[in-house]
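Sample entry (473 residues):
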Amino acid sequence: MREPSLGLEVHQNKFLAEGDRSMTAIVRVVSRGGEAPVARTAAEVLMIDCSSSMRFPSTKIGEARRAAAAAIDVFPDGVRFAVIQGTDRATMLYPAEGGLVAASDQTRAEARAAVEHLAAVGGTAMGAWLAKARDLFDGVPDAVRHAILLTDGRNDSQTRADLMSVLNSCEGRFVCDARGIGDGWEPAELTQIGRVLRGNIDSVVEDEKLAEDFRQLVESAMTKVLPEVRLRIGTMPYSWLRSVKQVFPDEYDLTDRCEETAVREVELSLGSFAGDETRDYQLILDLDPDLEPRFGRDRQLAWTELAPVPGVSRDENALAIAGQWTHDPIPPTKVDPLVSRYADQNALSEALGAGTEAYLAGDRETAEREWREAFSLATKLDDADMLDRLRAVLEVLDEKDFLVRVRDEVPPSAILHLVVPSRVSKIASAQEDRPMPEPADVPPVACPVCHELSPGWASFCVGCRRALDGADS
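Predicted structure, serialized as tokens:
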């Protein structure tokens, strides 16, 4: 079996017009290889909403029982697991006491029997459920830790500040996927859970599909072999990190999750990774308005690298994010396809949000216009999943000309399914990655202090970050 490894790529259009003072880059993190020694133990916690609202309709609690049983069925032998019954408190449903239990034929059968007794009565305090999961995971610190949270309602038994406090204490300690069922849950609350705990958030429109969804979530979690990967981002004296956003496979703004670790340097937890997995992050940099443009020569604007992971090989050299000003118009062929694609994806998200806000305010004309734009962008992106979601709120009169009309009756669940922000974005398989080529015939330069080799166009050493000869300060 191959040893696990981590790689890093930077995709960008480095050319800037004379007045440009911002730079966008896509940082791609790639994991490859076999099972990491630290990840031979996996841990899973199911958190099932059993508040009173789960009784209506009765299919909800029934499908929740079936989904929990389906997840339990696919726990491999040896995986540590537990099931939490969530109301205004977190109650251990299985095992009844103690910590996590190892999966086996016997414990899986016992857990399936226990979930048959899930009863819907009480309030909703998701922070209590997450805190209980956190405490259970603390017993297996070297495991790949994953949780699933199912809810049909709002976090009405505790304040949003209390929920956020618990989320902050859980960040980096486990990954949590969350699902909303029915039409009474709050997208903003699930968004925060997914964003802080780096999980996938979605809604379930058809209750009977919940069991298969849970099964797939567990199977995906069992492919994770690296408990946590961290990305470092550094800026120059003349640049600032405006934002960092995960754009594939799920879409989240993570700017406020960055931790300052040194002067002009931050570190971001990316969560757990599978043995073979790719994720993309969009970085936007702002540049000093007084920065003198450098024409015909690259200027380093920032750098990025992966933090060490025990037992895992990685690209050790930091990669530069560069800029080069030009007097000439920037030809379309110079625009990196990943940068272009994620710009369209961001526009799609904005159109979806604007259309939904207008619809809920009773402005059907604006909603129709914004959702029409979203339909056009989803078509361009070949996003079949989003097109299906849009068809639930739109009648498509002419697909070729994107002629649509808002449906007379739009179920609330369809609106929630449309706006849930964490969705798997589809990158067309035929798309070719084309990172910008670096200037040829420029030999690497050795740092006079640490002797690390940096690209010939670099302004700062990739090893010690000191300015190289002739670099701007």
